[in-house]
Each structure stands twice: as C-alpha cells, then as structure tokens.
Amino acid sequence: MEFALSADQKLLQDSLRRALERACPLDRVRRVAADDLPLDREVWRTLCEVGVPALLVPEAFGGLGLSLLDAALAAEELGRHVAPSPFLGTAVLAPLALREAGSTAQQDEWLPRLAAGECIAGVAIAEAVAGARDGAGVTANANGTLDGSALFVLDAGAADVFIVADRAGGLHLVRADAQGLTRGALRSIDATRPLGELHFAQVRAERLPNSGPATLARLRSAGWALLAADTLGAGEAMIGQAVAYAKERRQFGRVIGSFQAVKHLCAEMAAALEPGRALVWYAAHAFDALPEEAALLAAHAKSHLSETGTFVARTATEVHGGMGITDLLGLHYWFKRIGFNRQLLGGPERVRHLAAEMQGLVAA
Fold it and tell me: Residue 62: what are its φ and ψ, rounded to 5°?
C-alpha cells in the first residue's frame, strides 16, 4: 500500500501554491498587515477561483465535497505564504458545523453561499475549546437568545454570519446584523489573520439542532489539525529562507552556509519539522476515515507542531542574524504566524492535558 497524496491532491496543492505566489507576494502581506485590513479582496478572490471555500461543502450544495486532508494541504500552502485571508473559520469550521449539525433550511441557505465565497463566516468556539477567560463565555437562554461575550473569534472582521458555541457545547447561527450584537477587533501578534470579539445582549440566534459536545469536539479536532498544517507550511517557508540566506550571506570571505555551525542549525530545523508532516497528514486523514481516533491524533499534531514550529521560527531567525528581526526581510510575519497558531484553540500544554484526559491518564 502506498501512503502518499493522490494525483488530485498534488494538483490541488500545486495549483494553490502557484496562485498564491502570484496573488500574495510579501509586499501585499506587508500592506495588509500595516493597514489592519479585515479582508484582502484580491487574495480572497484568488482562493475562490481555486475553489478553497468549497473544499468541505458537499457537492449537493455546490461544493467539492473533499476531505479534511485536502483542507490541510490548503492550510499548508496558506501558512507557507502567510496569506492574509479568511480560511479556518469560513472554509473549514463553519461548513463542518453546518454539514454535521445544521438543519436542512440552514444548510440550504448558507452552504451554497460559503462554497461560492459569497459570504464570510466567523466562528466563536475559543471559550468552549480552550477555556474561558475572565468575563468571557456565552449563555444560551430558553427564549432562543444569547448573552455574554466571545473572544478570539476567527475570521470575524468581515463576517456576514457567526457560528457561536455556548457554555454547554451547543452551536448557534447568528447573523452579523442581529440586534443586540456588538462586534469589535481583537489584536493579536498575527496581523495577517485578524480576530474579533463579540458581545451578546439578548441576541436572537438559530440553534444548530443536531449540535452538542460531540459536534464541538469534531470542530476542535479539525481546528487543531488545520492549525498544525498551517504551522507546517510556515515552518517550511522559514527553513527555505534561512537556507537561501546562508547561501548568499558572506563572512570572512566565504558564505556562512559553509560554516559547520550554520549547517547544523539548518539540518536541525529540517530534522525537527519533517516528521511532523506525516503526523499532520494522518491526523487530517483520520478525521474522515478514522473518526474514533481523530481527536487524539489531532491533539498530538497540534501540540507537536506548536513546539517544533517554535524551534524552527527561532532558529531560522538566528541563522539570519541581526537581519532576522528587521522588517526588510519580513521574516517576522512567519514567526508571528507560528506563534499565533501555537496558542489559538489551546497551547501545547493544554492540548497535551486534554489528550491525557482522552486516554484516561488524568482525571477530566
């Protein structure tokens, strides 16, 4: 048996890579980050042309009906190019929530629009997945309204609709123009993927009728696997830049890549990151093929790539020396991307603790 990507998956990844090379040069990333834009329409249009928003939407609703592994390959390329665009919320978690827990009417209304890239969906599950901060958390009322606050809302800046998790693990659909809903920007270290915060005051919401803790756990697994894939792509980009710099930068009359110490740094980065590829791909594959194993594998992928990604980001910056911290090279965009992925939906310490709970090694 051959454990490798299919021809279609290789084509998807190659097509997206070439599209992002054209539409997402570093100058565009720098401009979007500097202007604090909630959405870069040019990059989003490119992703729509390649079919990224439709990846996980069933064919019956105008999507491609592909697997989470295909979405992971897309995430890898987005991380490689630090693409300033919605993805995890709009193209992954929202379609999954509607697909697995939405009513027929909700699916008919929103899945075709998501597949076509006609709307952006924000996803507010951070409190339910990674633990609530003081004053945060959403309560579902018996009259079909929501109260409370949600932080670290994915793809929130230009969202037309939100998927919101309540304290009990239920999921709700909230329109962006709902009365009583207040939204604001939430700054993080990664300016290429703006977060948001939502405040609810008796906000009318549509519950996803089949949602509950099991659905929320599925979204958590998907989020962990896709963040790990994004870190994998960002780490590869940083290694590539470090190697290229080592081949050009000269000290004492020779390129620094000829020095054994620098060779060791580059080799250590590659040796640390490459094993994570199989872990990420298998975790994403298991989401559809081995659902009973998906949560634990996603936890391993998220926690491991969080640590190795941090090592790669630090070491690649060290290879660049003083140039590594300048805006001229832009290396900090990948550095911050990896740091953002490390903490979003739970840092490696919390994720490992949850993995231990799943295995019965510690009390829940």
Answer: 90, 10
CB-CB contact of 190 with 336 (8 Å) = yes
Cα 297 from chain centroid? 17
- Proportion of the chain above pLDDT 70, given as a percent: 99
**DSSP, res 160:** S
Number of domains making up the chain: 3
CA 207 – CA 344 distance, rounded (Å): 25
Statement to judge: residues 169 and 302 lie in one domain: no
DSSP class of 154:
B
Q: Is the dihedral of CA 279, 285, 288, 289 positive or negative?
A: negative
Within 10 A of 142 (CB to CB), how many other CB atoms are there? Answer: 5
The pair of structure tokens assigned to 165 is 């998790």
State the pLDDT at residue 2: 64
SS3 call for 115: helix
pLDDT over 60 at 1, yes or no: no
Distance CA 172, CA 155 (A): 16
Position 364 in a domain: no
Span 13-38, average pLDDT: 91
Q: Residue 127: give its domain's CATH number.
A: 2.40.110.10
The three-state DSSP-derived secondary structure of 28-87 is HHHHHHHHCCCCCHHHHHHHHHHCHHHCCCCHHHCCCCCCHHHHHHHHHHHHHCCCCCCC
pTM over 0.90? The answer is: yes
**Rg of the chain over CA atoms, in angstroms?**
20
DSSP string, 195-259: EEEEEEEEEE-EE-TT-SHHHHHHHHHHHHHHHHHHHHHHHHHHHHHHHHHHHH-EETTEEGGGS
Reply yes or no on whether the pLDDT at 228 is more than 70: yes
Looking up residue 314, the CATH number of its domain turns out to be 1.20.140.10
84-93, 134-143, 235-244, 304-313 — which is least confidently predicted? 134-143
CA distance 121 to 83: 17
Of 216, 206, 205, whose CA–CA distance to 100 is shortest?
216
Rounded to whole angstroms, the Cα distance separating 101 from 87 reads 20
Q: Does residue 311 lie in a domain region?
A: yes
